[in-house]
Amino acid sequence: MIRERIADNIYWFQSELYAQVTAGAIIGPDWAILVDTLAIPDETLEMRAFIEEKLGVQVRYIINTIYHADHTFGNYFFPGATVISHVLAREKILEKNQQTLENAQEQEPAFKRINKIVVPDITIDKGTLSLQIGKRNVSVYPTPGSSPDGISVLIKEDRVLFAGDAFLPLPNIIEGDVEQLTNTIRLISKLGLENIVQGHGDVILRGEIENAAQSNIDYLAKILKVARTAVKHKDPREVIEAATVDQCGKSRVLLTGLVVELHQQNLIALYQREKLALEK
Ligand SMILES: [Zn+2]
Q1: Which residue, 42, 58, 158, 264, has most beta carbons within 10 Å?
Q2: Tens-digit pLDDT profile for residues 95-122
Q3: From CA 82, how far away is CA 78, in angstroms rounded?
Q4: How many angstroms does the Cα of residue 201 sit away from the middle of ligand 1?
């Protein structure tokens, strides 16, 4: 696990074992807010030890930015915490994550340390949930597009945004919507932020935000164009295979190379959606 202090009493954690998934902690005088957990139990426990033993505060709230198992499995290790998510994330956690856990346990015994799926206690829908921690004001609000249940966490005084999967080195739209995600990325880029904590990958610094946002918006436009070309082509597979990550303006080494597969899945998902739209 990699750990860094982003601002006074704001920490960022990144998995070294799974998809560079990230989590964050906002430390108050008496308790802490956690933003997501790390996928692998050992790493979540390492993060917990740092917060509870080294910094000496208990986690009172966990905000799950998305339902995905790699962000939420670790809820289990904070039995005293109240978990917050989007209402749709809660539904998906209930619907899917037990099976995901059982599959993970079959493949990797380390997941047997998780005895149950912890479901969010408090949900948000369209509005903003505000929390005060010490002198800081924290806003939790929807940032859909990568997934309909995506939410972000803004620490107003520090201009730090935990964006979850709304901001990634390579956008993920397998469950998402290109236009909605483009809009979300644009809105995020205009917030005047010091840092964006991506759901996976590294922290984006102020001077990098504009380029990172534009790169993601360009990528989304490009893959939409590829999907629309593929739908009209006699051999869609050929069009999709020709549109490599590099062709679409991104580096294949991002997220330790995982982006190659993610990119393929993006294209296939978009192609199928465009095909369906055309048939209607
Ligand atoms: Zn994710």
Answers
A1: 158
A2: 999 999 999 999 999 999 999 999 999 9
A3: 9
A4: 10
